[in-house]
Write a structure and sequence with these properties.
11 helices; 12% strand; Arc Repressor Mutant, subunit A
């Protein structure tokens, strides 16, 4: 049982106890009034004062729904003066949408004689504000059953209803915000994926330009008639270019390194630790062809002039 159910059960018990107490007070007042005048009997006054100082609103209505008796708390709940509230019909301060439901509840009480415990409804105060009641009602008949009175015990639950409404609204707002955040996250993921794709494309363009445009010219210069100093400079340039593009290579997968299908096969077998002879037997080609493919792979990866182990380098690629 959760806290809300416990509170409701506690409230139900309290209302039943109060209703029984009010019925007892009513009975005492009727008995005492029949013996002596109300004004002259101190016992009657005592019970009336007890009703008057209850925190819960107590009021009585006839079969038509007209107010016939009320205590101080009931008057405060509606905001009318005693003169205005006495004799007022429930249609005057209960919204139509709630009045029809309450009519059925009170009709059932009248037909069965059984009380109705804890039902909620709205009321319209004199100042126009909407308030909410939680009420327990029972039927009191006189000895001849010719007159009937509905006894009502209520407490104000306006704050609780407003808190509940605020909670529902906050929950609705959070749901909207959550949905909006999910859409933003989706858009952000798309944007980040596009940025990553753009980055990969930029790296591939840089690699392609350096390896296919710049380095070939550097290597052509190296084959020309250069002095020792000039030749050394070309080797420095080539090494630096390879150092520049090396991080880009490590961020690319093997499939993104412009390898041919056969080179991809060889590269993957090298990654597995196969020897040149094992690869040749597996692909049914000569060991010379495997060496040719290995050299081509090293060249495309910028490893020609490095002592890097091909398998170790391939394993380092994502």
């Amino acid at each position: 049982m959760n806290d809300e159910e416990k509170n409701k059960e506690k409230l139900l018990t309290e209302i039943m106890q109060l209703r029984q107490h009010v019925e007892m007070l009513e009975g005492e007042i009727l008995q005492l009034s029949s013996k002596a005048g109300t004004d002259a009997n101190p016992e009657v006054k005592k019970y009336q004062e007890m009703l008057e100082h209850m925190d819960e609103a107590y009021f009585e209505t006839d079969r038509a729904g007209n107010i016939t008796f009320f205590n101080r708390a009931a008057l405060q709940m509606v905001g009318y003066t005693a003169e205005e509230f006495m004799g007022m019909n429930s249609r005057q301060y209960i919204p139509p949408e709630d009045y029809e439901r309450l009519f059925k509840i009170y009709n059932r009480i009248y037909q069965t004689g059984q009380p109705a415990l804890i039902f909620e409804y709205a009321i319209i105060r004199k100042d126009g504000r909407i308030a909410y009641r939680e009420t327990s009602a029972s039927l009191l008949k006189d000895s001849s059953n010719s007159e009937s009175t509905f006894m009502n015990l209520s407490r104000d639950i306006t704050k609780r209803k407003l808190y509940q409404a605020a909670f529902v609204e906050k929950k609705r707002e959070l749901k909207i915000q959550s949905h909006s955040l999910a859409e933003s996250n989706t858009a952000l993921k798309v944007l980040l994926k596009q940025r990553e794709d753009d980055k990969v494309e930029l790296e591939r363009n840089v690699l392609s330009n350096v390896r296919e445009i710049i380095i070939p010219y550097v290597q052509k210069l190296q084959k020309g008639r250069l002095g020792d100093d000039e030749l050394a400079l070309t080797h420095i340039i080539e090494a630096n270019l390879n150092n520049i593009i090396s991080p880009f290579l490590r961020n690319l997968s093997i499939s993104q390194c412009n390898l041919t299908p056969k080179e991809l096969q060889v590269a993957n077998l090298v990654k597995e630790g196969r020897t040149t002879k094992e690869i040749a037997d597996f692909l049914n080609i000569s060991t010379g062809a495997i060496d040719f493919h290995r050299n081509s792979i090293r060249k495309k990866l910028g490893l020609n002039n490095k002592k890097s182990n091909l398998r170790s380098y391939l394993l380092s690629l994502t």
